[in-house]
Amino acid sequence: MLPVQILSDSAQEERDETARLSTFVGAIAIGDLVKSTLGPKGMDKILLSGDAERQNVEVTNDGATILKSVGVDNPAAKVLVDISMTQDAEVGDGTTSVAVFAAELLREAERMVAMKIHPQVIIGGYRKALLMAQEALRKHAKASTGLVLTAFGSNI
């Protein structure tokens, strides 16, 4: 049986620390790209698409729109874009926040890896933090009865 070539001739291979760093950098760049659109003083981004003769210009501060328009080839960056798209499909909002939050978790993970903390230890810590956050939310949750009536009864 003959070997099958899966990758293109121009494909590059990265190993060990170089691969890990490029993964971190790509994902963090996605978070940084949309971070400035957050909040009441969030800034708009100008998106250009099309060729030189017929350019389409769009001004937006919507994280989902920005991330949909960015071509991404970094696997970790693609995961962040997918997280944002899933957030948009499931909830309809929070696309920028989820991308920025995930990027910041990766930024901290990169810092800990540089301190020679094993990635499995970092993942274990993040899992413990998740459980603690869920418990804190359950502990402080309040019933939301009557909330819908209030929202529908207000002047919009």
TrEMBL record:
Cellular component, GO, one term: cytoplasm
Keywords: ATP-binding, Chaperone, Cytoplasm, Nucleotide-binding
UniProt xrefs under InterPro entries: Chaperone_TCP-1, Chaperonin_TCP-1_CS, Cpn60/GroEL/TCP-1, GROEL-like_equatorial_sf
Subcellular compartments: Cytoplasm
Highest taxon listed in the record's lineage: Eukaryota
Main location: cytoplasm
GO MF annotation, one: ATP binding
Protein's job: Molecular chaperone; assists the folding of proteins upon ATP hydrolysis. Known to play a role, in vitro, in the folding of actin and tubulin.
Family membership noted in the UniProt record: Belongs to the TCP-1 chaperonin family.
Quaternary structure, from the entry: Heterooligomeric complex of about 850 to 900 kDa that forms two stacked rings, 12 to 16 nm in diameter.
UniProt-recorded name of the protein: T-complex protein 1 subunit beta
Organism field: Anisakis simplex
